[in-house]
Design a protein that fits this description.
With 403 residues, the protein is an alpha/beta fold. The chain is 37% helix and 19% strand. Helix 1 crosses helix 3 and helix 11 packs across helix 13.
Length: 403
């Protein structure tokens, strides 16, 4: 089955085209990125497998035009990979928020679209953009089945004592205020792949997955299911991130609103856009830039990186305690896959768990590798995430089972 995978943002869309023979046998036909949708100087970068990169710069007024450019590139006689658009058998979409309605991926129907729209209130930066992608595909490929793969779905197995907040229960029943968790597609993929790589039985395992990037989250995966996760009602909660604060004493926000004259929107901007590595270091939201500044002696960059490392250490410790042990710890995401310094800082603080860290293996970047020595009581691995493959798998399975 040939599956087009779309990840739509407010002004961009990433895509991959995969030929799915089965869950384990597949080939990447093309991938690319459309940027500056709705702005001047829109940009398409199209990478067909085995061919030269194709780039196009032109105004792209909306997602419908952006997806049409992608489709045109896929069937182009020079840089295309398909003979006809009819070869596309399904489209899978990353949808950030599915609320409590979706425990798994779903075939997109008017009812599913209605539920996605309901979640726009609690995911205003993401769900509206995801809907634009779905609507654009309906206009360009009206007869092709579409599937929504939700970031939140994997975490719907969390028990109530983990997803509830310690506020009056009526706010859960009235407004569904609870921990939802995010990066679920990534956590699901790397826990499954990590178990196989480490020789574990996924259904009888205790795994902690660390998705670390500009946005970061950590998940306790017990017997293949999400037990707890660091992100909450929004992707703001948890560890320090690129521009997000991570967890903060809520009373601090009340104090700042009074002292700085901030309203709710101002506080949200402060916590989501001006905090994290950027806010603490004063240098950059990029972990690499902070690392360079720390090496040059910048004290704020040093403490920002220490805080990130120790936030990760605390969540790993908490989740190991909650599961009464851990078999495997997985690093993934841009930082998790490439930043040996952060991995080293974390792992060297986990000897109490039985982590026998291999510093030489830790020099590897962006590759699947075991970071512990043979015989280590707890294994640690780098597993590059592949959310697009996970989306393509779910899409294939759902479309193949349409009645």
């Amino acid at each position: 089955m040939i599956v087009l995978v779309l990840n739509c943002g407010s002004s961009s869309l990433k895509y991959q085209l995969l030929d799915m023979k089965s869950e384990e046998v597949y080939s990447l036909l093309a991938k690319g990125l459309v940027e500056r949708i709705g702005c001047e100087g829109g940009h398409l970068k199209h990478q067909p497998s085995g061919k030269d990169v194709f780039e196009l710069v032109q105004d792209i007024p909306d997602h419908t035009v952006g997806i049409q450019l992608v489709l045109d590139a896929l069937v182009n006689s020079v840089h295309g990979v398909l003979s006809d658009l009819g070869d596309i058998e399904a489209v899978g979409h990353r949808v950030v928020h599915g609320g409590e309605e979706f425990f798994r991926s779903a075939l997109i129907t008017p009812e599913v679209i209605s539920q996605i729209k309901k979640c726009c209130e609690i995911a205003p930066l993401h769900n509206p953009a995801n809907l634009l992608g779905i609507e654009a595909v309906y206009k360009n490929l009206p007869d092709v089945p579409q599937v929504a793969v939700f970031d939140t779905a994997f975490h719907q197995t969390m028990p109530d004592y983990n997803f509830l907040y310690g506020i009056p229960y009526e706010f859960y029943t009235k407004y569904r205020i609870r921990r939802y968790g995010f990066h679920g597609t990534s956590h699901k993929f790397v826990s499954q792949r990590g178990a196989k790589f480490a020789g574990l039985d996924l259904n009888n395992s205790k795994i902690i997955t660390c998705h670390l990037g500009n946005g970061s989250s950590i998940t306790a995966v017990e017997n293949g299911k999400s037990l707890d996760t660091s992100m909450g009602f929004t992707p703001l909660e948890g560890v320090l991130m690129g521009t997000r604060s991570g967890s903060v004493d809520p009373e601090v926000l009340c104090y700042l609103m009074e002292k700085e004259g901030l309203d709710a929107k101002g506080v949200s901007q402060l916590l989501n856009k001006k905090s994290g590595l950027q806010g603490v270091s004063g240098v950059s939201s990029d972990c690499r830039d902070c690392g360079n500044a720390a090496e040059a002696g910048n004290p704020r960059a040093k403490v920002a990186l220490k805080k990130l490392s120790h936030d990760i250490i605390k969540y790993i410790g908490a989740y190991a305690a909650q599961m009464n042990g851990v078999d495997l710890i997985v690093f993934t995401g841009g930082i998790g896959e490439n930043n040996g310094r952060i991995r080293s800082r974390v792992c060297r603080n986990l000897t109490y768990l039985g982590v026998d860290f291999n510093a030489e293996a830790n020099e590897t970047r962006g590759e699947e590798i075991m970071l512990t020595n043979p015989g280590s009581k707890v294994k640690v691995a780098v597993i590059p995430t592949n959310e697009e493959l996970m989306i393509a798998r779910d899409t294939m399975n759902i479309v193949n089972n349409i009645d």
